[in-house]
Amino acid sequence: MSKRFSRAAAARSAAIVGRLGAPWTKVVGWLERRDWDEGTLLMVFALAIGAASALGVVAFYKLIDLAYEVLITEIGSRLDPVAGALYRPLVTGLALWIAWAIVRWAKIRDGQTVPDVQLAVAKRGGIVPIRPVLVRTLAAVVTLAGGGSAGSEGPTAVLGSSIGSAVGRALRFQPRRLKILVGCGAAAGISAAFNAPFAGAFFALEEVLGSFSIGAFSPVVIASVIAAITVRPFLGLHPAFHIPPYGSINPLAIVLLYPLLGVACGLASALYSRMFFSTADAFQRIKPLWIRPLLGGLAVGLLAYFGKGLLTGTGHLAIPIEMFGGITWYVLIGFALAKMLATSLTLGSGGSGGLFTPTLFVGAAFGGGIGVLAQQILPHFGLHPEAWALVGMAGLIAGTLHAPITAIFMVFEMTDDYNLVPPLMIVSVIALATARAFAKHGLYDGWLARRGEHLAHGADRAIMHRLVVRDVMNTSPVSIAPGATLAEVVAASSESRLTTLPVVDGDGLLYGVITFADLRLALLDRGDLAPILLAADLAEPTEVAVGTDSVQTALAKLNARAADLLPVVESEAHPILLGVLTREDVLAAYERELIHQV
Q1: pTM for the model
Q2: Which one of 176, 225, 411, 559 has the fewest CB atoms closer than 10 angstroms to its CB?
Q3: Residues 268 and 412 in one domain
């Protein structure tokens, strides 16, 4: 199919945009007259989405400023110290209740989060409705301004995604293009929020689209860069938060000590994920519904009060300089645990917001605490807790959000120091592996799993669990009897398109398999024995799948042994051959299911 717009498609686009207003019609008409290919056209729209998303981020931040000024600064400054101490927990409880009420009043379903955008890309053809997103964004404004422990980056990424989706749907783009524009919006939201275009682009590619394909890469990068450029006159050129000086990194520490930090970050990530969902489950049991946000907000406000204001900022990205190893190690670990709890309480009780910034806070405090402890234990090793805090941020992002590439690029982009890259890579990879070993899900995929959704690399992994092997397998494979001669085996192999021959006896029982590699060795190396060799002599034992197994289970067996084919039997106790399963069979069935979903 041609990558250029057909005249019919151009006419449809012109008719649609005609209803959107004359200026927009002229712009699209001009683009159509250029007759650009698909890649160029997507990059043009990515530029517009990047700029629009950045302006949306600016508006979002200005609303937070305004709400914070009303709720905290104006009223709080007029109270005496005792009344002020009581006011902050109360206003946080009230803010979470208002946020909950906004969502409930608007009658929108649960979601409008980054995992929901992932789901839209994987199963809904890239459709991200804008009205529910705007409502959830307003709820996030109130949550953040009132002192809730949440991040602003999640709402900005979702807001950008909805803008990209709205543009694509207005022009009736096919789902493939629409998904790319959603990724462009997500990249622009993160890039504008953190002033980090690299991190924004790789977040969208890694977490939202689940693909680094050339077709998606260029538009996403364009949107991310344009968003960063657009937002800088409003929010400045500096990083999202202050990065302290952290000295040089001992190469020996990279090899001997930073892997230990990776394990520690993985364990902390697993604890964070378990705490987050356990807290949400606890609030689900509280009746009536309206009391949940009040209780959650009150608890968060008390934590913030006893944390001397370090746990919550002014509604924006806030990681106090003390978290980078500036205080005692056990106090830093305590702050990391308190931030986990505060974030779990905020979002579990009905507040709205993101998870990225709180996770960075936890990583900085936890990594800084471990760094201070390591410095005390090994005073002559030249360790710098500030560097451990920065690397810990990447470790927690990798472990909790399962986004190691984003984690590496984000911290590198904020520091612009290549010396940090080796420890960032080591800690991120080890933290991810450790977290997966101790917690089945992270914060994003856990949210989806609790709703019965399973995604992997931008696609619906649940398909693999739903499909059954007997519905996918090849039921008429070429097979050979155990008593067949080598010449007969060669003849049978020439009739098969597969690289493995099942060996089956007269009763249909599976005897083993012969691979083409085994057959080649027999022809080359057996010499005078070749004429008397039988199929039974060449057959090797093999892993099998049962017809009732899920395709995911069978695929795991194929991957574990790098096999090309898996015999399918009635049962392992009674291995009557039913057919064979290949990777091509799995891929074809998977693509059929995806087509039905879009």
Answers
A1: 0.78
A2: 559
A3: yes
- 411 and 497 in a single domain? The answer is no
Q: Tokens 């409880």 identify what position?
A: 93
pLDDT band at residue 136 under the 50/70/90 scheme: very high
Reading across the β-sheet that carries 545-546, which strands appear in turn?
Answer: 545-546, 565-569, 577-582
Q: Which of 263, 541, 246, 217 is nearest to 375 (CA)?
A: 246
Q: Which run of H or of E encompasses 22?
A: helix 22-34
Average pLDDT for 328-333: 95
- Which CATH number covers residue 170? 1.10.3080.10
Q: Do 444 and 507 share a domain, yes or no?
A: no
Whether residue 204 contacts residue 186, with contact meaning beta carbons closer than 8 Å, is answered with: yes
Cα-trace Rg, the chain: 28
Q: Is residue 226 domain-shared with residue 113, that is, in the same domain?
A: yes
Share of the chain above pLDDT 70, in %: 86
pLDDT tens track for 449-479: 887 776 665 555 666 777 888 888 988 888 8
Q: Are 383 and 374 in contact (CB under 8 A)?
A: yes
- Alpha carbons 270 and 275: distance in angstroms, whole number: 9
Match 């090849």 to its residue by tokens. 474
